[in-house]
Design goal:
mainly alpha, 2 domains, globular, transmembrane helix
Length: about 375
């Protein structure tokens, strides 16, 4: 067993306390115990070294985020995720329309107005047309909700499964969890994503007349409704960041230092997604000629490119979190080019052909200084 000394690494590394808190770790000393074992490999004890980075290490994190994004072919993974996004969106709209039908027709119209502001008009036209067609079927909201929810969960789980494979590529590891573990994780993550996105959609439509109706039902004054109209966008950004943080934590087969409600990568992904959506909307409105090139399929092309850019933002956030984890391991004394740089959560499903890599994975549990003895 490896025993680490109890040290206040935030102080030792001359890192301000607020940086420790932002990174999701306590700047205080923690009791250090022997590192436990799980399925033949050691579980990472994050108290064996600094849990936050020195300021000079951040440049390496940003540089490796870009280079690893290219090396991991994440633009190709974004294209695969775009395919699964298309399969997931329209069944999800069935569920969303059924839920919004309970709030009245103005709720769906509020969502349509918001979607039109989110991205290029030619790209969001597909979503808007689908919502308007489904709006007329509100009398079947009960059956639609049940059938649509089951379909959406099944199809959207394909997106989560693809993201889990992409996350393993990001963390330079294999999928070692057996199928009886990956399937529940996949479906559970899908259900959580659907719930969080439904909350975001409800938050978007609770405005104007809908907000007044909800305010009267809850017995709150008009001032509270006005405050919500202003505060809802930061709240929605936090909800989306939470969804990304859940995805980044649970998807890869890599041990991480515990769940953080908001990870740096999830916040970065939200900011990149907002910037990419706004920039692409301006480009399409002023410089794009997709309708001339693709004809009647111009709107489809714009919509797919927008989804691809959105998935690139999500994957960049995951890569950033991974490189932060690598940076912390480097400061603990691990080689910067060692792969995998985090021990896997499970190895039972790994191919027997890769048994020769067990020594490397075991070595990943021990700092370079200890191995040189």
């Amino acid at each position: 067993m490896i025993r680490a000394s109890s040290t206040n690494w935030c102080a030792a590394a001359d890192v301000p306390a607020f940086a420790c808190l932002v990174a999701g770790y306590s700047p205080l000393d923690r009791e250090v115990t022997d590192m436990p074992k799980r399925h033949g490999h050691r579980v990472v004890d994050w108290s064996t070294g600094p849990t936050v980075l020195r300021w000079r290490s951040w440049w390496g994190v940003f540089r490796r985020t870009v280079t690893e994004f290219l090396d991991d072919n994440l633009s190709d993974w974004a294209a695969a995720l775009t395919y699964y996004s298309v399969l997931s969106i329209f069944p999800g709209l069935v569920v969303l329309t059924a839920i919004l039908g309970a709030l009245g027709p103005s709720a769906t119209q509020s969502l349509i107005d918001t979607i039109q502001q989110m991205g290029p008009s030619s790209g969001t036209a597909l979503l808007v047309d689908s919502l308007r067609q489904l709006q007329g079927a509100s009398q079947l909201s009960g059956p639609l909700a049940v059938i649509g929810l089951a379909t959406a969960l099944w199809t959207a789980s394909g997106y989560i499964g693809a993201f889990m494979r992409a996350a393993n590529a990001i963390y330079d590891t294999e999928e070692g969890r057996p199928i009886w573990k990956t399937v529940p994780v996949q479906l559970g993550l899908t259900a959580l994503m659907v719930v969080l996105l439904a909350l975001c959609a409800i938050g978007v439509v609770v405005t104007g007349q809908v907000a007044e109706r909800v305010g009267q039902w809850l017995g709150i004054g008009s001032a509270a409704v006005l405050v919500w109209d202003i505060a809802k966008w930061p709240v929605l950004a936090v909800l989306v960041s939470l969804a990304f943080a859940l995805l980044y934590w649970a998807a890869p087969n890599a041990q991480q230092p515990g769940f953080r409600w908001l990870s740096p990568g999830s916040v970065l992904a939200v900011l990149l997604w907002i910037a990419a959506s706004a920039g692409f909307a301006v480009y399409v409105a002023n410089f794009g000629s997709y309708n001339k090139v693709y004809g009647s399929l111009g709107g489809v092309a714009v919509f797919l490119i927008w989804l691809w850019l959105s998935n690139i933002a999500v994957l960049l956030g995951a890569e950033f979190d991974a490189e932060l984890a690598r940076g912390r391991r480097i400061e603990q004394g691990f080689p910067p080019d060692e792969e995998p740089f985090l021990p896997p959560r499970d190895t039972r499903a790994m191919s027997e052909d890769n048994e020769s890599g067990d020594a490397a994975r075991a070595a990943a549990d021990q700092p370079a200084a200890d191995r040189s003895r």
